[in-house]
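Protocol step 4 of 5: obtain the predicted structure for the target chain.
Materials: sequence only (see below). No template structures provided, no constraints applied. The aim of this step is simply to have a reference model before the mutagenesis design in step 5. Sequence pasted as it appears in the construct record:
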Amino acid sequence: MHLKTNKSSRSDGDLTRNKIKKVAQQLFATRGINGVSVKDITEASEQKNKASLHYHFGSKEQLISELLIDGAQKIDEKRQELLHQMLKEKNTLSVRMVLEALIYPVNDMIDHEASESTYIRFVADLQLNHRKLLRDILGNKWNSGYRRCLTHLKQLSPDIPNPILEQRLSMIGIYSNAIFAAKEASLQSLDKSNRFWSRSFTIENIIDTLESILTNPISVKTQNLLSDLK
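Step 4 output (structure tokens):
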């Protein structure tokens, strides 16, 4: 009679957890978290035990939290490393360099996971429909590299009035999430005719547009509307 060892049991448990996580993130990315039930996840991940999600994660909310932190931690580590390297090579950062630190880790993760990449669409749904949940889970720990970048961008934009600057920084976050969610969807699509992402200059052109959001002069009309608030 063959007895399972504790090691094999742990291995089986890890495989089950990873399968549930992969399937759940795919479903959340394509349907949104409100459009996915625990039953949907257990059935799509081929779990015979209908309570397997609760056994491994406690609840759907805790599974969401673990998925969000997993991806955020990967991106944050790369972002912190990039900022550290930039500051090591140069005493001061430019707006362009900070935006590269924001964008490159996200793009690299998508390229590495290719057609299986789903994290950015998952985050985009949370940002659009569940901002409080997103903030509560990440807190001040799992996005410290992102917050460092925002601090640098604020310091590099002293002439932009704070209400305008805050909005522009939010636009950068919303825009970059949306466009990289589109990249994920494109890589997963069966339609390979989309040439947008195959061009060598695409990522740099995206960073160009992000830089324009932050550095473009404030129009007279916007200035007048800002003055009306005072």
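Step 4 remarks: Residues 60-89 form the longest helix (30 residues). The chain is about 75% helix and 0% strand.
Proceed to step 5.
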